[in-house]
């Protein structure tokens, strides 16, 4: 029985070239693995920082809730300060988001909606403002860099038609 396995011969020059290319691929593989490990470490660190900042927001909310649980009839001074306290927690939360380029979309009532930034979720009959004017902002939208992560949800005016449907 004869050996049917083919035998290939390559020149020394081609062999050296292949060995050099294999060495370069191995070096690149090591570099890529190191870069991946560094990126994973950086991502883990950034995620940890985010969680720690969000925990500060949670702590502030928990302090308010604990006070309310322990004081079923809070003092008028506390009730008076409550909107400011909640606003401070909200500012802290928005600051955490802002550090990550998550920015609220600023829209105002009284203008026509920009459909790139908002979504009309309802219409209400109004006679005091033009048709299609934003009358209420229901939920704030957010932009992440150039991307609209969540459009602002709005209610717009609907001017009732002056026609009563009769044709003369």
Automatic annotation (TrEMBL):
Spans through the membrane: none
One function term, GO molecular function aspect: protein-folding chaperone binding
Keyword Chaperone: yes
UniProt cross-references to Pfam families, sorted A to Z: GrpE (PF01025)
InterPro entries assigned: GrpE, GrpE_head
Keywords: Chaperone
Tagged with keyword Chaperone: yes
GO BP terms in the entry: protein folding
Record-given protein name: GrpE protein
Origin organism lineage: Bacteria, Bacillati, Cyanobacteriota, Cyanophyceae, Nostocales
């Amino acid at each position: 029985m004869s050996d049917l396995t083919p035998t290939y011969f390559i020149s020394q020059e081609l062999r050296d070239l292949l060995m050099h290319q294999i060495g370069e691929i191995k070096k690149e593989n090591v570099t890529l693995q190191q870069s991946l490990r560094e990126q994973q470490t950086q991502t883990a660190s950034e995620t940890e920082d985010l969680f720690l900042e969000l925990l500060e927001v949670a702590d502030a909310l928990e302090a308010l809730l604990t006070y309310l649980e322990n004081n079923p009839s809070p003092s008028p001074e506390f009730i008076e300060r409550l909107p400011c306290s909640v606003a401070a927690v909200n500012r802290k939360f928005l600051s955490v988001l802002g550090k990550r380029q998550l920015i609220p979309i600023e829209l105002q009532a009284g203008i026509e909606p920009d459909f790139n930034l908002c979504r009309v979720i309802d219409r209400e009959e109004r006679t005091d403002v033009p048709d299609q004017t934003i009358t209420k902002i229901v939920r704030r939208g957010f932009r992440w860099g150039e991307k609209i992560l969540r459009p602002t949800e709005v209610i717009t005016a609907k001017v009732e038609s002056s026609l009563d449907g009769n044709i003369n």
